[in-house]
Amino acid sequence: MKMHGLGNDFVVLDGRARSIAVTPGLAMAIADRHRGVGFDQLALIEPDSRADVRLTFFNADGSTAGACGNATRCIARFLMEDTGRDAVSLLTERGLLEARDAGNGLTSVNMGAPQTAWQEIPLAGAMDTLSLPIDGDPVATGMGNPHCTFFVPDAEAVDLAAFGPRHEHHPLFPERTNVQVASLIGPDHLRMRVWERGVGITLASGSSSCATAVAAARRGLTGRRVRIDLDGGTLDIDWREDGVRMTGPTAHVFDGMFSTNWLEAAE
């Protein structure tokens, strides 16, 4: 299936009825927007006794991603429509996530509690995650994957194509990091752009939006519920005691099958 959340696009493989082996090479072949399908992340659905399904995520470069909020919302919407239920549980590397129908075609997922301790994110050593020793004074946050958030006067003015990769590979982040640039445009209202680890510039990112909202609240720039405008649209982020809830639209674009010849060539 091809899906997207605010233009953050995914290929979703349904492995509930038949086991699917995804190698880094296969993920990269599917990610090729000219010779494959193209995606920001690939998600594999599998059965699991602890939840309705288990999800595994891959980036476009074949590496794994511990969390992918928009893909989780897309798959939750698919499962709810498939089963007629208004809530589902999804097991990820992040843990057990609960998703629900938020009404008006919107889907909400609880992405769990943010990680704010340096060793959880992880960072290369002990330091204040609210003020990293990097030019621009960014904030580090973990949402099952690492994030580095810069608050800037104008997010639009940043050359993200150069800024993103330079900080993705910063030595303070041993597992690389997602990079966000965000500016305050109103009370509890942020404009954010994102460079995703292993992908590049994306139109939206759910986990990045959660991390940016947490960073803004910790800095005292906003309250704990914010609206975040991304290149692809708007997400509502609500940091509660039980976790960070993300709400927004989803789209199921099409279903397809890979040809045998293409799969053999991809392997």
- Give me the count of strands: 17
Shape, principal axes of CA atoms: globular
Helix content: 10-25%
Main sheet attributes: strand count, strand direction, barrel closure: 17 strands, mixed
CATH architecture of the largest domain: Roll
Tell me the distance between the termini. Answer: 20 Å
Secondary-structure content class: alpha+beta
- Reading the helices and strands in chain order gives EEHEEEHEEEEEHEEEHEEEEH
* CATH-derived topology of the largest domain: Diaminopimelate Epimerase, Chain A, domain 1
Rounded average pLDDT: 97
Domain tally: 2
Number of helices: 5
Q: Any low-confidence stretches, pLDDT <50, length ≥5?
A: none
What CATH first level of the largest domain would be assigned? Answer: Alpha Beta
> What is the strand content?
35-45%
Rg, alpha carbons? 18 Å
Structure commentary:
The protein has 267 residues and is of the alpha+beta class. The protein is globular. The relative contact order is 0.16. Helix content is 20%, strand content 37%. It has two domains: 2-108 and 250-266, Diaminopimelate Epimerase, Chain A, domain 1 (Roll), CATH 3.10.310.10; 139-241, Diaminopimelate Epimerase, Chain A, domain 1 (Roll), CATH 3.10.310.10. It has helices at 24-31, 69-83, 160-168, 206-219, 260-266, and strands at residues 2-5, 8-14, 41-46, 53-59, 64-65, 87-92, 95-103, 106-110, 139-142, 146-151, 178-186, 189-196, 200-202, 225-230, 233-240, 243-248, 251-254. It has a 17-stranded mixed beta sheet that branches.
Topology of this protein?
Layout: E1 2-5, E2 8-14, H1 24-31, E3 41-46, E4 53-59, E5 64-65, H2 69-83, E6 87-92, E7 95-103, E8 106-110, E9 139-142, E10 146-151, H3 160-168, E11 178-186, E12 189-196, E13 200-202, H4 206-219, E14 225-230, E15 233-240, E16 243-248, E17 251-254, H5 260-266
Parallel strand pairs: 2-3, 4-6, 10-11, 12-14
Antiparallel strand pairs: 1-2, 1-17, 3-4, 4-5, 6-7, 7-8, 8-16, 9-10, 11-12, 12-13, 14-15, 15-16
